[in-house]
């Protein structure tokens, strides 16, 4: 059995959050990849139901997107991701999916697509050649840890895997092994005590309120209280000039079969 330790370990660090995903090499100052955790999923006809799912990475070179098989007549799910921070460009019948809910993995298909994007497009590495360090919440469940290990070893053939509490890593990043970590994220807010590199599980406090909730409240106030029509960028075909202090005007695209989840995400 191989033993990894010291500065020579070429481990990959994977941190998938409710809003952002960070990935890179252990020991470096900054993540090598930083992109949105939201994944677009569109069901298409004309592909074999047994065909492998395809993923398109928008705003990337054309040859980066794996080709989809089109034989057969069954439905196929095609995944879309954006290399930057915005939503994936509009596609018909595309639902927006997020792998994280309340700090736990809720959508394993979306998580797998994010890992695929990290290894194949963002870092361009073979995961079988690098140990993996994957962050987890302080209240992660055993079955979730087991499934992460199954994914890392059976699909990606990683030589080693280490699951580490995100609060512990935050404390270490500040040069502390003992700290009270307050993390206000997109999907939740938590206060986690860390003592000598270990999380004190019984003293963890968390709320399922975060930046997502604040964005929802602001959007609701704009549309309901202030009577402001929020037009997402994907609908705008051409902007029109207006006088000072006048409402904006624009010519809009005809976007049939737009899902409610994509329209709502684009507004935020």
Automatic annotation (TrEMBL):
Region feature Disordered, mapped onto this chain: 241-268
Q: What is this protein called?
A: Actin family
Q: Mind telling me which InterPro entries this protein's record contains?
A: Actin, ATPase_NBD
In which domain of life is the source organism classified? Eukaryota
Gene3D superfamilies associated with the record: 3.30.420.40, Actin, Chain A, domain 4
UniProt lists the family membership as follows:
Belongs to the actin family.
């Amino acid at each position: 059995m191989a033993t990894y330790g010291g500065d020579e370990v070429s481990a990959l660090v994977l941190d998938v959050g409710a809003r952002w995903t960070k990935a890179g090499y252990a020991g470096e100052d900054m993540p090598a990849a930083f992109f949105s955790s939201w994944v677009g999923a569109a069901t298409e006809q004309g592909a074999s139901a047994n065909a492998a799912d395809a993923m398109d990475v928008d705003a990337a070179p054309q040859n980066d997107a794996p080709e989809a098989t089109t034989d057969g007549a069954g439905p196929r799910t095609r995944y879309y991701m954006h290399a930057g921070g915005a939503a994936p460009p509009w596609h018909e019948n595309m639902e927006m999916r997020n792998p994280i809910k309340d700090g736990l993995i809720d959508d394993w298909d979306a998580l797998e697509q994010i890992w695929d994007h990290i290894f194949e497009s963002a870092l361009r590495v073979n995961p079988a050649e690098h140990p993996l360090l994957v962050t987890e919440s302080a209240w992660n469940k055993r079955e979730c840890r087991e499934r992460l290990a199954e994914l890392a070893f059976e699909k990606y053939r990683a030589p080693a895997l280490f699951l580490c509490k995100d609060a512990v890593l935050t404390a270490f990043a500040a040069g502390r092994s003992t700290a009270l970590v307050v993390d206000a994220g997109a999907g939740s807010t938590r206060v986690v005590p860390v003592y000598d590199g270990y999380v004190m599980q019984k003293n963890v406090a968390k709320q399922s309120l975060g930046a997502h909730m604040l964005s929802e409240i602001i959007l609701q106030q704009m549309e309901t209280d202030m009577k402001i029509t929020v037009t997402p960028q994907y609908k705008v075909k051409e902007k029109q000039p207006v006088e000072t202090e006048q409402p904006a005007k624009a010519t809009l695209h005809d976007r049939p079969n737009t899902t409610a989840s994509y329209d709502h995400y684009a507004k935020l």
